[in-house]
Design brief:
By secondary structure, this protein is an alpha/beta fold. Helices cover 15% and strands 28% of the residues. The chain has helices at 3-24, 184-189, 199-203; strands at 33-36, 42-48, 53-56, 64-67, 71-74, 77-84, 95-99, 106-107, 120-122, 129-130, 143-146, 152-153, 166-169, 176-177, 191-193, 213-214. Strands 1, 2, 3, 5, 6, 8, 10, 12 and 14 form a nine-stranded mixed beta sheet that branches. Strands 9-11-13-15-16 form a five-stranded parallel beta sheet. A hairpin with a 5-residue loop joins strand 1 and strand 2 (42-48). It is globular. Mean pLDDT is 89; it is low at 6-28.
């Protein structure tokens, strides 16, 4: 068999494999390690930053109350958890609560997309970046606390969060926020709580000043 024919055969087999995945509804999840947390819940991780740190990834369907640990020991090596990866908790509709440790620096694209049972979330002070649509579609989310180190809130992070009634920001100097980070419902109905002495900072900052109620 010629090299060209072998390459065509290999390509055909790959296409057939992915077609079978599509038609059988099998979800192909990729992760590096799976480790139980202190509560006995398995959390899935990928190695990042040349294997020196970990990110939480979507290895399976998460549900209930999840506590992400600050660090994980695997094969006698301990690494810090510094990121919640893209789509890590995507459509985990039975996720009720999430505890994010103060080692996490970033939350990925659509990380909690349509977690429709999630009631509240606290972003620790260690987080600087939250990517697009991270909590979009969390329709039961009522309370959000934003840490002090966030540098930007981008597109659609809290879009379609129709139950959001309380947003607490710990930032003394409000970060840049896109207009569609929150829904119009949130701007008109939720209360934005800000640090003492910072009320004017928020009232004079674009899109933060869209909140009808700031205190």
């Amino acid at each position: 068999m010629t090299t060209i024919n072998m390459e065509i055969k290999e390509l055909y087999l790959r296409l057939l494999f992915f077609a079978l995945l599509f038609h059988t509804g099998i979800k192909a999840n990729a992760y590096d390690i799976a480790v139980k947390n202190a509560d006995g819940v398995i959390i899935y991780y990928n190695f990042i930053n040349d294997g020196t740190e970990l990110e939480v990834c979507n290895g399976n369907f998460y549900y209930g109350n999840i506590v992400i640990p600050e660090e994980v020991t695997y094969m006698n090596r301990t690494k810090k958890v510094t990121r919640i990866g893209n789509r890590a908790f995507w459509e985990c509709t039975s996720l009720y609560s999430i505890t994010i440790p103060n080692t996490v620096k970033s939350i990925g694209l659509r990380a909690f997309w349509e977690c429709t049972s999630l009631l509240e979330v606290t972003i620790p002070d260690s987080v600087t970046t939250i990517d697009e649509g991270a909590f979009s579609g969390c329709t039961s989310l009522s309370t959000v606390t934003l840490g002090s180190s966030i540098t930007k809130l981008g597109n659609g992070i809290f879009s379609f969060c129709i139950s959001l009634s309380s947003v607490t920001s710990k930032m003394e100097h409000p970060c840049t926020v896109s207009l569609d980070c929150f829904t119009h419902y949130t701007y008109y109905n939720a209360t934005l709580h800000v640090p003492d002495g910072c009320l004017l900072n928020y009232k004079n900052t674009s899109n933060w000043n869209k909140f009808l109620y700031i205190e």
